[in-house]
Structures are given as structure tokens and as C-alpha cells.
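TASK: fixed-backbone design
INPUT:
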């Protein structure tokens, strides 16, 4: 996706910044307006995020709407929920895997097979293929992975590194002792 943005905006660096922010945040363009899902986003907010003036944002929107290929992409963008930052406080573990350049494809299948064989309960998988920056896979699992599972994934030829974000150690911060609910907003509210 970002390759398309780079190609169409290669002669417009400021507009390219705006387009990248739109893509990375799932912000769509419909009828010359910016939307994150059904919520309208202000041009000012995008201008601040991109470090450009509002005029650049308006020119970017106009360019996208006049270019059929870009319009057909940008009008369909949607934001997605990412549990990566929330997972540790929910008691889940986050496995962040980076891959050697150009080696993302078959690795996902191998990793999924390993996790399936070990009966790991997967909450979410997010894959990112970035131009120049390499590829990253985030896997959120409900219970901590055993070291042999991590070692097996690390031994896949294309895996460059693995970072594990473990669950919050002080479970009393979020786990309610009064019921069977694993996450209790009342408990979080009471602890402040």
C-alpha cells in the first residue's frame, strides 16, 4: 500500500506525508472530507500530525479524489483495532517478530503452524510489510508462551529477532477479586 503512495506522491513530499498518515491510521476520504470510520476528522488535525499547513492537506485530498486509482483506495480505508499496547495489562503476551528483508511470506505459515501445534490461543495477529524498514509481525496470545515454542519460532530461517512483551506483573491492578471477570473497569477505577 505504501508503495502505491510513494509512487503517486514521489514528486510531492509534503503531500506524501499526509497520504502516509491517512494510510497508517485508516483514514478515508469521502466527498472531500476525512473520516476515521464514521467519525469526521479535521483537516487541522491531519496538518498538525503531518507537520504541514492546511493547504497541503486540501491539495492532497483534491489530488486523491481526481486520481481514480488513489480515490478507489482511499475511499475504502478503515481503521483497525490494535491490542498491542493493551495486551500486557489484560494479562496477555505480545510476541513481536521482525523478519529479514524479503522473507515475510512463508514465515507466517510456519509460525501459525507452530502456535497451532502448541495449542496457543491467539487473540490477534497484525502483520506489517514496510518499504525499507523490514517486516514486523505482532502476535497476541492469551497465555505466556513456553520457551521451547519461542525457540522454535526463532529457529525459522527468516526470523531476525523476537521481542516478548509480557503480561502486567501486578495483576491486582486490573483483576477483580469479586467476580469471574478477568478485566473489571470498577477495579481499575478504584485503584486510582
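OUTPUT:
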Amino acid at each position: 500500500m505504501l508503495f502505491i503512495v510513494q509512487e503517486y506522491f514521489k514528486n510531492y513530499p509534503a503531500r506524501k506525508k499526509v497520504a502516509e498518515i491517512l494510510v497508517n491510521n485508516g483514514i478515508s476520504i469521502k466527498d472531500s472530507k476525512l473520516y476515521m470510520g464514521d467519525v469526521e476528522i479535521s483537516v487541522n488535525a491531519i496538518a498538525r500530525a503531518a507537520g504541514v499547513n492546511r493547504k497541503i492537506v486540501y491539495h492532497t485530498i483534491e489530488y486523491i479524489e481526481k486520481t481514480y486509482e488513489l480515490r478507489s483506495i482511499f475511499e475504502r480505508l478503515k481503521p483497525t483495532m490494535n491490542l498491542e499496547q493493551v495486551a500486557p495489562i489484560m494479562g496477555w503476551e505480545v510476541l513481536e517478530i521482525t523478519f529479514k528483508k524479503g522473507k515475510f511470506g512463508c514465515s507466517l505459515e510456519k509460525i501459525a503452524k507452530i502456535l497451532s501445534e502448541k495449542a496457543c490461543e491467539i487473540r490477534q495477529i497484525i502483520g506489517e510489510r514496510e518499504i525499507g524498514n523490514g517486516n514486523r509481525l505482532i502476535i497476541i496470545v492469551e497465555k505466556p508462551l513456553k520457551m521451547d515454542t519461542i525457540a522454535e519460532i526463532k529457529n525459522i530461517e527468516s526470523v531476525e529477532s523476537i521481542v516478548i512483551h509480557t503480561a502486567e506483573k501486578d495483576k491486582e491492578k486490573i483483576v477483580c477479586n469479586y467476580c469471574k471477570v478477568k478485566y473489571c473497569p470498577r477495579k481499575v477505577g478504584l485503584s486510582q
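COMMENT: The two ends are 42 Å apart (CA to CA).
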